[in-house]
Amino acid sequence: MMATLLTPWTETLLAVFILAAGLTLGALIALALGRLLDEAWLAPLHPALSAMAHATPVLVPIALPLLLAVPALYGWGALPDVGVWHEPAVFTGRGVALVVLWAWLGRVLTRPRAAGRTAGAALLALVLTGAIAMEDWALSGDQAWTGSLQGLSLLVEQVGAALALATLIALRHAMPNEAARNGLERVLLTLAMATLWLWFVQYIVVYAADLPPEAAWYLRRSVGGWGWVKAGIALPALLLAIGLALVPQWRAWRLVVVSVLMLAQHVAHLLWVLRPDGAAPVAAAALVPMLVLLGLVLACPRQARPA
Predict the structure, then answer these.
(1) Inter-CA distances, 81 with 76, 84, 85, 87, 95, Å
(2) Contacts with 284 (C-beta within 8 Å, 6 or more apart), sequence order
(3) H/E segment holding residue 132
(4) Residue 263: closest CA among 182, 158, 180, 187
(5) Residue 152 CB neighbours (<10 A)
(6) Nearest 5°: CA angle at 220, between 231 and 281?
(7) Which of 91, 213, 249, 307 is deepest in the core (most CB within 10 A)?
(8) Which residues have CB under 8 Å from 262's CB, separation 6+?
């Protein structure tokens, strides 16, 4: 009964939770990559990425109401025999373990002298646990979908979204130097193209296999306005970001536009994947995550960086 009453709100709250978890996870992966490859863009983006990485404990209070609505949010939650992997206690314990691991890795990766070897091991752990988290939290609600690249696609998007958000915050202080800007251009373009490639490959695999459950997964996301969320917002935003990113030597406005487009496509695609079935319409479901991101940017006061 409680789960049924909470469903209209928890569907939107689930999107906010996965968005917050994705930004945290994306920031951690970006920190690990920057440390491992000794990237110049890490210095100007480090304060914002560190803040997102240290925000991992915030996921706990957001997740608590969701635990009450597991049977309503996830179809398997109401089944009498769901298997060990999806037992509510195991599902909750696995989620807690992931959050604790990410919180610890956040402390490790934000240390001033985190070694490249440590960053490499952390990157491997983050990719593996991130894929598990996205399969659990974002994809397992639709039981027709088993095993896909959607989880990896979300993971790549989250790294791009975290870097984009960190870039917008850093630009409120100062324009990164040339070396950092060039590196940022490359990594944002790479992540955007990797996202597009993963979307395309996943769709082609489903189209070629012609399996009814996987085809139905896409068809359910083409009704009630949800098709336009992907085809009218997420895909055009990603393509425009790639088009702008292909031109080298970005100015500040191009960094801002590419970053905003990558954030917009991530939020739109995340909502499309989750596809709330309750009372919240598309516009209302999209409004909350976008306001969260806007608040994060505006919360950072604009000031000159010390020389």
Answers:
(1) 9, 9, 11, 8, 20
(2) 12
(3) helix 116-134
(4) 158
(5) 18
(6) 70
(7) 91
(8) 160, 161, 164, 188, 191, 192, 237, 238, 241
Q: What angle do CA 9, 147, 209 make, to 5 degrees?
A: 115
Task: Give the DSSP per-residue string, 133-153.
Answer: HHIIIIITTSTT--S-SHHHH
Give the model confidence (pLDDT) of 232-267 as tens digits: 889 999 999 999 999 887 788 888 999 999 999 998
How many other C-beta atoms can be found within 10 angstroms of the C-beta atom of residue 215? 14
Q: Which two tokens mark 103?
A: 């919180």
- CB-side neighbour CA atoms (13 Å) of 41: 22
For 64, the token pair is: 């608590």
pLDDT band at 3 (very low <50, low <70, confident <90, very high): very low
Residue 163: closest CA among 290, 14, 46 = 46
Task: Write down the architecture of domain 8-298 according to CATH.
Answer: Up-down Bundle (1.20)
| Residues in CB range of 197: below 8 A, 6 or more apart | none
- Averaged pLDDT, 54-66: 86
Q: How many CB atoms lie within 10 A of CB 284?
A: 12
Name the amino acid, one letter, at 98: L
* Two tokens, residue 288: 């909350």
